[in-house]
Amino acid sequence: MDYKEYLLKQSAINLSYIAERMWPGNKYAKSYLSTKLNDGGRPWTDTDNNNAERVINELGLQLLQDAPNINHQQSVKVVNKTAVKSPIKKEVPKRNLLKEMQDAMKGDHEKS
C-alpha cells in the first residue's frame, strides 16, 4: 500500500491537516489533495508521495511526543464515568416477544 491508498482508506486521518502541511502556502490545499487522491485531473506524483510520507511521519512523532503529557488517570476516569451512565446499567424490563406477537395476532383476528 502506498501513501495515496493509505490516505484514501484511513477515515480517522484529518486530510485538511495533512494537506495544509503538504502544501503550506496553498490556501486550496485540501481541494488540491482531494483532487489528487480521487484522480480528478491531477496525478499523484513521487513528490506528493514523499510529502505525504514526511507529514505522516511528523504527525506520528508529534503524537508520540505528546503522549507522555496526557493524564492517563483522568482519561480512565472519564471512560469509567461514561460507562456508569451507560444505558446498559439501567434495568431493562424483560419482554416475552413470543407472547407479544401472539397477543398482537389475537387482536388482529378479533378486529376482523
Question: Care to describe what's here?
Answer:
- With 112 residues, this protein is mainly α.
- It has a domain at 3-72.
- The chain has six helices and no strands.
- The protein has helices spanning 3-9, 15-22, 29-37, 46-66, 72-84, 97-111.
- Mean pLDDT is 74; it is low at 74-89.
Shape: elongated
The largest sheet is:
none
How far apart, in Å, are the first and last alpha carbons? 63 Å
Q: Write the element-wise H/E pattern from the N-terminal end onward.
A: HHHHHH
Topology overview:
Layout lengths: L2 H7 L5 H8 L6 H9 L8 H21 L5 H13 L12 H15 L1
Which descriptors apply to this entry?
112 residues; mainly alpha; 6 helices; elongated
Gist?
This protein is mostly helical and 112 residues long. The chain has helices at 3-9, 15-22, 29-37, 46-66, 72-84, 97-111. The protein is built from 6 helices and no strands.
